[in-house]
Amino acid sequence: MSASRKERDAAAAKLSLEKEQRKLGNLMALPAQLLLVFIVAFPLLMQLYVSTTWWSPLDGVPWYMAYESWNWFANYSDLVQDSRLWGAIWRTLLIVIVCVPAQFLLGLGLATLFVDSFPGKTIFYTLLLMPMMVVPAVVGYMFFLLFQQSGPINDLIGVFAGGPAEINWLNDVNLAMVAVMIAEIWEWTPLMFLILLAGLSGVPEDQMRAARLLGANAWQRFWRIVMPRMKTVIIIALVLRTVESLKVFDTLFIMTVGGPGVATESISLYIYKRTFQDLEWSYVASIGLFVLVALSLLAGLGIWFMVRKSTKPAQVATAQQGGALALQEAK
Amino acid sequence: MRPSPAQIALRYVLIILATAIVLIPILWMISLAFKPYNEWQTAATGVHWWPKNPTLGNFEYIFTGQTEGLVVSLDFTAVRPIFASLLTASLGTILAVIVGTLGAYAVSRFKVANNLPLSVLQLRLFPPLAVMIPVMIMWAYLGMIDTWWGLSLIYTIVTLPFSFWLMKTFFDEVPLEIEEAALVEGCSRFRVFWKVTLPMVKAGIASTILFVFILNWSDYLMALLLTRKDWVTIPVYMNALATAMSGQLYGMKAALGLIAAIPPVILGLSIQRYLVRGLTFGALKQ
């Protein structure tokens, strides 16, 4: 009898501890929750509201009175026909399609050079990481300087071509895009390098040695042993860079301001110009929501795809975090 | 199987080539920062990689507003933007790390606030410009445009995903048994967090602070959207730096770019160990 009372007491103590923990936990999470309500829930409703009106800060009417110029979905039907917006979307996708794989391949190539140790490894490693730590706006300015018509890039080309090069990089419709992409690749290849090298270093040495003894050549070792272990790392690296590249703004804005004309105008740049040059805030709000919904669908699709693929229990240790993320969403 | 001499040579050639590509843009800007006025325009003097007459005039000009050889003086020097960058990035960092740490501990230990990990992450998913209209309206309505607290607040929000996820991985690494032992000894739950767990993740907190500070310091867009004059940060000031009389101040911009670039590079290299973890929101640990 006393034993059961002890058990009951213990259970009660445990319950009260759990209650205390729950209370404390909710309290500790409160600041983050409040910030989220402040910056996500409320603004989204506001954006939806404003996007169904003609409101502009020039109207002299506060935003909550925007219903005076209610237009239902006129902004959204304008958006479908806005060729400049679709151009910007296309250019943003082009930057992603070119730069992310380029960063990935260059980063992977570099990472394979750094797997074994060699004299000078640390210093080269440190130097190679520098671009991604330089402030992006400064990277934009660096490449703005490099691609001047009488700048060092043309000088270098001139040295190899054997005559002075007079390429007007940033004022040429096609070359401006090339210049911008080079800057993007320069800045973010180190990130791919860093992540992929972390993944490569996780491949067990003894397995590689065993495979070598069994007569597997470098190509087979790469595809059979390295790649399966690298899968999660690669997915994470690609997803990260894709998400970030879709936002591309700083370097573009400083190098070309989207020009010449609209030749390097990305989604973010187009939105910026419509916001500050044309002050069409309600229209911009509708574009923003459209981008938000499109990206959410894309992200949802990606997560669904990853969850379906990763239901197998065998997972790399490092994958657990990434997998946990996807699983939480699935719940 | 040792690599052959040819393989070793090839590796060094490739690595040195990559390093050169990485360094050229940086060196060019550094060199420009020390070039006097008449060497900026390469058209006149030809491209030379090293300043012929190295000078600190560009730095002098952005700090004091005047320098030898430039008639036009600068009314608005870089001192205030540097101060603005330091203040807003630091405040935003402190707030983000406090809020992130508390939230991360709650999620890591108490099985509450299950929405937090993903809701916080989604802050990072979308292009900020797609959601800036309501933010700008709110900031204007609350009188926070072009103020230090307005910019610090947005920095807190923008970097919360990183501080939250990083701290969560550090808390997840602390064994539960240690906390349980302290609980048995009669510590209150909060005391356990404050006196037992927090000291154990000190190194984690320090690297989270540095990581988040780098991100805030590197921001361009938020300051561009939410400041006008008084609280512009270094990158915004840098890009606008020009005078009506002498046009683009290339050398000064380069000098300022150098000043802006140094802190994140130094801080970033000092937390190399945690870079992978930070950049992947803790999904990968080195």
What would your notes on this structure say?
The complex is a heterodimer of chains A (331) and B (286). Chain A has helices spanning 2-50, 74-80, 83-113, 121-133, 136-146, 152-161, 173-201, 205-213, 218-245, 250-255, 267-276, 281-309, 319-330. Chain A is mainly alpha-helical. Chain A has two domains: 2-50; 85-279, MetI-like fold. In chain A, helix 3 crosses helix 7 (173-201) and helix 7 (173-201) crosses helix 9. Chain A is flat. The two termini of chain B are 26 Å apart. Chain B is an all-alpha fold and 286 residues long. Chain B folds into two domains: 5-64, no CATH class; 79-279, MetI-like fold (Orthogonal Bundle), CATH 1.10.3720.10. Chain B has helices at 5-33, 42-45, 57-64, 79-110, 116-122, 132-141, 148-173, 176-184, 189-200, 202-218, 221-226, 234-240, 250-270, 272-279, and strands at residues 242-243, 247-248. Chain B has a two-stranded antiparallel sheet with strand order 1-2.
Question: Any chance you could write out the topology, listing elements then pairs?
Answer:
The complex is a heterodimer of chains A (331) and B (286).
Chain A: H1 2-50, H2 74-80, H3 83-113, H4 121-133, H5 136-146, H6 152-161, H7 173-201, H8 205-213, H9 218-245, H10 250-255, H11 267-276, H12 281-309, H13 319-330
Chain B: H1 5-33, H2 42-45, H3 57-64, H4 79-110, H5 116-122, H6 132-141, H7 148-173, H8 176-184, H9 189-200, H10 202-218, H11 221-226, H12 234-240, E1 242-243, E2 247-248, H13 250-270, H14 272-279
Antiparallel strand pairs in B: 1-2
Helix pairs in contact in B: 1-13, 3-13, 4-7, 4-10, 5-7, 7-10, 8-9, 10-13, 12-13
